Amino acid sequence: MAQSKTKQDMGSGSIPGLMLNLAIPAVVAQLINMLYNIVDRIYIGHIPEAGASALTGVGLFLPILMMINAFAMLAGSGGAPRAAIAMGKNDQANAQKILGNCFCVLMAFAVVLTVVFYTFAPQLLRLFGASDVTLPYALSYARIYILGIVFVMIVMGMNPFITTQGFAKFSMITTVMGAVCNIILDPILIFGFNMGVRGAAIATVLSQAVSAVWVLIFLRGKKTMLKLTMADLKLESKVIVPCLALGISTFVMLSTESLLNISFNSSLSRFGGDVAVGAMTIISSCSQLVTLPLQGICQGGQPIMSYNFGAGKKDRVKQAFACQFLACTGYATLLWVLFLTIPRVFANIFSSDSSLVDFTVWAMRIYMAGIFSTGVQISCQQTFMALGQAKISLIMACLRKLVLLIPLIFVLPMILSNKVFGVFVAEPVSDILAASVTAFMLFSRLNRILDQGVKV
User: Residue 398 has what pLDDT?
Assistant: First the structure.
């Protein structure tokens, strides 16, 4: 009965109502998920005497963290839309095989990444810009977090399969559980037990473990329509390859975010020193206030578009996209206004070091100048994914970072007299250009994609 009701809602229910029911829990989950990434930095930034250096050191772990997330979403973001399309075609057996195959791949990723990152963490952190002062903090945090990679894979890779079935509230609870545990454990371990950055890492790993257990219990329980079974864990190329092909665009987005972070940190370390790298840690944390909720909105729109695309209901796909586009652009514009008008409020959350805060205020206004266009970029790029358009989604994912932003980070400081300004201004330039191109590509191709349909 639950399955029939979900199909009826997806296929004939009110689009705005469905968007609210699916997107609000997803946005809340993403905001809470953001706490996983930034609550550690907030507490660490206020460690007496060592706060600024410790914050910078933990920020240098971001490229590794992003790569871990990228591999999790390679399977999760690629498998969930294809499972939804299969469900829209009443192919429940294929949808369940997709779930099992993606879980198997996630476990393989966890083993390989744990060994590689744990072994080469010191060399990687040096490459990312760690100094003699910040390396001990970065390494202490990194090696503990890396041991919990398997939990990250389960939470990030499997949670989209819960959302895509219409269980957005259960998906939200997954993140809420872990975030609450993290918020409670952080001050206890960091300050109460005087463990510093090691305490922050332990708190995060334990919290992710709680969320992972919840996900597994749900996917093995009675409420789920797609059940995780041993029979479906056997890898089949015809099942897993299309999922990874679709997920590659999200993988590229996240992995290039890692490369992007390395590029920013190396350039800023060269031209501005540790204070500039510390400011970038704060700014990148604040930028998640934009990107993560936008992804949550798109998680609400994706099941509706994917299901109706599979069912051949083109008008409902367009309605869902319109709701998603308006919500994303409106939210991004609101945050753009806040970052440009009250940047000091955000900077003070992460540090009490006056020199670091002053530098961050100046840099944030430059970096965030084009953040309003991110709503357009993410909404359109994620729509390509929801419609199974792996190739064009990958191209659009590469455009902003690989084609525009990373080259500009190194080129603009060579042109402009203020080299640190040149590094930061690369962000708004690439944001606006990439959003313009992505929007044009989607609006010019949408009718053609809907007319052609999709093969699962």
Answer: 83
